[in-house]
Amino acid sequence: MSDAASQPANSPSADRILQAAENLRRNIQGDLHEHVVEALYADAARIADRAVSRPGVAAQPTFDRTLDRILTSRLWGFPIMIALFALMFWITIAGANAPSGWLAWLLVDQGWPMLRHAAEGLGFPWWLSGLLIDGIYLATAWVISVMLPPMAIFFPMFTLLEDFGYLPRVAFNLDKAFKKAGAHGKQAMTTMMGFGCNAAGVVATRIIDSPRERLIAIVTNNFALCNGRWPTQILIASLFLGSLVPAHLAGLISAGAVVCVALLGVFFTFAVAWTLSRTVLKGEVSTFSLELPPYRPPRVLRTLYTSLIDRTIIVLWRAIVFAVPAGAVIWLSANVKIGDLSIAQHLMQSFDPVGVFLGLNGVILLAYIVAIPANEIVIPTILMLTVVATGSAEVGQGAGVMFELDSDASTKALLQTGGWTVLTAVNLMLFSLLHNPCSTTIYTIYKETGSVKWTALATLLPIVLGVVVTFLVATVWRLLQ
Amino acid sequence: MRGGAASLGVNMSNWTIIICLLALAALLVWLKRGMVARWRAGRRYAARVRREDAIKHILKCEVNSGEATMESLAGHLQIPTDRTAELLESLEDRGLLSLQGGKIRLKNAGRDLGLHLVRAHRLWESYLSEQTGVSEAEWHKRAERQEHLLTPEQTDALAARLGNPTTDPHGDLIPARGQPVAGDRGMVLSAAEPNQPLLVSHVEDEPAAVYSQITAQGIRPGMRGLIVEKLPHRIRFWANGNEHVLAPIVANNISVEPLTDCTGNDLLDEEFLTGLATGQSGRVLGLSAACRGPERRRLLDLGFVPGTEVVAEMKSPGGDPTAYRVRGTLIALRREQAALVRISTPNSIAV
After folding, report:
1. How far is CA A349 from CA A332, A355, A361, A391, in A?
2. Over the stretch A362-384, which tens digit does the pLDDT of each residue have?
3. Max Cα–Cα distance, chain A, nearest Å
4. Which fold has domain B270-344?
5. With contact defined as beta carbons under 8 Å apart, do B222 and A30 qualify?
6. Do domains B187-268 and B270-344 have the same CATH topology?
7. In chain B, what residues touch A29 (CB-CB under 8 Å)?
8. Which of A120, A238, B32, B258 could cysteine-pair with A254, CB 3.0–4.6 Å?
């Protein structure tokens, strides 16, 4: 180094060397860096071949190979996949029912009256106990009791499948379909995750290393019907659609309707991915790679621990953080009066024309605005607002107190008092699929993309689609009547 | 009193109008921020871009032993001839060129400017292709914008960051600072003989419509191929295990150099990873020149380097992608990627 620096620039030998280097460089075909990389790999392989002995053929690869042949075969690949995920959803929905009931009993049926008594004892003014207990506490209690059990069941199962090595095979099986839409096969995994929770699905897109495909996966994740929306779908389908057919077919029809909505979500995932990859995301970077790791026995305890801590608790915490202000807003809107009417009534009246135009109503639109923090509280909010709007005094616990009714029949009766028809029910199911992501997801999208632009797109696109779809359905419905 | 109130009302509305007019005037002519200033800055920038594009065109004609004329310039810039004459005059006034005897000659200052533009353009294309993964169709468009924005110092810094590359992704030589711009290399594909092994040395990126046809066919500089058949209206060109049927206007925008180290049959017998049936194996010979930037590095990282044995393990139920076992790991590649990996099979070695 010091020699070269002390050498005068015009020294003949230095010039000769520089000239020779220049000539050599010009005559090397291709990229110099690449030749270096290739030489490194070739050397490494030679050294490894000399130094590493491979005794026979291990038993593991043949087992892997057989399993791979079955799981990715033309005949068995898709049926196994569908069966596994159907089983997972069934376990989640069936298994979450009981713990959700217990939590609701503990937090709402027992905890809420107890807190009200305590507040009375301490001499809280009505507005303070209303705001804190009826608004904030109750919203948080609903979110926890509806959200925690399904997530605590779904995420560990998902993580076990991931740990075992099955999920990359799903990506491998489905890549062709995603490729046609301009997306990455690994999006199959993030979409599945989205059926559990969209916020977790958005975080899971980190596994996609190609920037363009990752953005597509983030923006379209909301079209996967999340755990928070399944109960709404199931309730509304069984109340309004199941009752249209004879009793023995009711279960089948309402389950079929929910599956149709979920499949519509999958359709929108592909359609939107296709459109995005050919328009706004055209210039974004895209590369593909998919590794299929060997199968491993899943480490059950560790998986349970990490999926509870990493996924369930973090997502739940974020949901609670957003549910607290939502509870306050819901209670205030139903109790603060301007003139003779509460803010909620003013808003519902002004939203009503738009809502009816879309085949919905003002109550539903307002419920979706105040329930942005969590889809879980949409149904309790709708019921509460319907009571406020219709003034039925015999149900509910007072203005601004969210509730659910014990019997389906009385829920339906209340909704029908609010002017609900089958069209309202169908459009609510569609709007529940196609509306903005919950605030937890929006915040997560912003954290993951670091861009206001993509966050805004992911938030507004589903609403626009929702408005278009519900309007079309309402128009066709009215024409047919 | 009444009259007073009315006149006050008139005054009030007069004041409103005056304030509105002042606000409007401020919006329009505010120094450096107003709309007029912005519009003028935009005009100045557009005029500079036009001057620089003109210099680049003249320089490119010069090095390719042609001569720029007022007509070629008007055609290239897509402006009327009288505007071109004005443009040339302003370039002469700035001491960038001379117009003696009706011939357009660059002066040293003009040549330096042109050299900087060419260098900035080609370096930016290299940057886009090697470090960003921006799609190929975007490179030229973005470099056309960027060449006017980079200063010579920034260009040098960019060159240093890229390791002073000598060719851009289209196969054009990137001139070093202060070195003359070299002319296009090789001959056009439509002039080459059939069955002669060829190396694609350059793909012309203008006009964009023809260029996009070439990239859609997957033809890139550094690829090897040969002409299978030459017909008056089309040329059948074999490269990378695929036949490309090209219109003469497309073939005119591809430059090639004859290859001496292989025969035409070698090229026709080339095999790619896509040719492997499930269970078959092959040895990697190399990656196609069509595979660049992040994608190329990714494949190299995964172990697709010369000499590595690859086994096609299984196909996805849809037929694509295919999973290959490389150095003990299963890697799924899509068809287009597998088509970039050149291999030899035991079969071909025996023959």
Report:
1. 17, 10, 9, 14
2. 889 999 988 887 788 888 888 88
3. 104
4. SH3 type barrels. (2.30.30)
5. yes
6. yes
7. 222
8. A238
